[in-house]
Amino acid sequence: MMHQSMNKETEQQLLADEAKYCSFGDTVHYVEPPKIFTGCDGSYMFDIEGTPYLDLQMWYSAVNFGYKNTRLNDVVRKQLGILPQAASQYLHPTKIELAKTIAQDMENKFGLPGRVHFNVGGSQCIEDSLKIVRNACQGKSLMFAFEGGYHGRTLGASSITSSYRYRRRYGHFGEKAHFIPFPYPFRRPKGMSAEEYGEHCVNEFARLFETEYNGVWDPKVQEAEYAAFYIEPIQGTGGYVIPPRNFFTGIKKVLDQYGILLVVDEIQMGFYRTGKLWSIEHFGVTPDVLVFAKALTNGMNPLGGVWAREELINPTIFPPGSTHSTFASNPIGTSLGLEVMHMLQETDYESMVMAKGAHFLEGLQDLQKRHKEIGDVDGLGLALRAEICTEDGFTPNKALLDKMVDIGLSGDLDWQGKKIGLVLDVGGYYKNVITLAPSLHISTEEIDQALALLDQLLTRSKNS
Predict the structure, then answer these.
(1) N or C end: fewer C-beta atoms under 10 angstroms in the chain?
(2) What is the pLDDT of residues 227-246, one digit of tens each?
(3) Which CATH architecture has domain 113-325?
């Protein structure tokens, strides 16, 4: 477990230089002073003193296969000696092989031929999907999206991301979304089962098309004003909210009835985070467009992609030059992505992830029994949530979770007589949800360690 050694004086100088020379526009400091890490391995990050931090968010689910994954690191080293870079107007084998692997998998699962288009990250791939959708829908620029949904912070992506703060100073740029409530089982109306709640949410959406006066549908020409519905099957930044299983089948029926495309954002939940390659597979509906990124390269290269069915993306309707990025489908990224797909085909990740997720969820449920401040726990595979509340078990308690994050990143927890830290991510509508996305390769022992540290962290935070 090697890490770069650094003394306190060097750390202080780096922080001073960051404060003076770095734009804060792409930075969120969860704690003050900000934490500097100098090493990583498996499920752990290491600070300048060599203190390990068990990472339960793995770079927002980008590093699904663990830090310094030997197999994937070897692919990078090999590619550096073969073809490390190539202009994007030229072809190289792994681009073609990766596109084929993903497209064939989609056709096998959903019965639809399609193509894969690459770009340099999640937001950029969302932008490209917007081009594909608007082009196919004769330039319609209005989209449906969910309250609590997150699709990125570029101009187009932020327009379909529900947080107004991401576009407050920039306005809209072509797209504008109608934000629909996402079913939130923990906070559903009293007296409703989860399934009744899912059906209720579907009916509220369908009501928009009842008459022309609901504002989205012209019954005389049978045309909707909206081109597509952008969804995360499980909300990421929104707090790893898992909807009732009947919800998306109902939504898809409405979309198909009124000719509206379904665009699925798998940027955070893809690549077996939930026990399936794509989280939408749990819900029994077929996407028209699917966007992926993050774990495609285990966080080592900014590569993502868009799959779209053939009618939306074939060269006649979406010709060369429709969009472009210098570093899209670069050979390092596509070689990594292809190796990831090979790994997923060789190992039963579904059984592995579901078993580990069940063990983790059982431990969270046990914690919930001992800490009344844990209002809700839920999970699908290794996408898990713990909602932190006041003692009533329901009122959001952001202040307590903020304390937990601070103490976790202090590196001052105790594990068998040694100092250790805990890396958590905060999500949810009220910023009171621990969103847990550990490495898919996390061991049972590390899960048990995580649960013990969460127990210690809650106790210390409540008493501080």
Answers:
(1) C
(2) 999 999 999 999 999 999 99
(3) 3-Layer(aba) Sandwich (3.40)
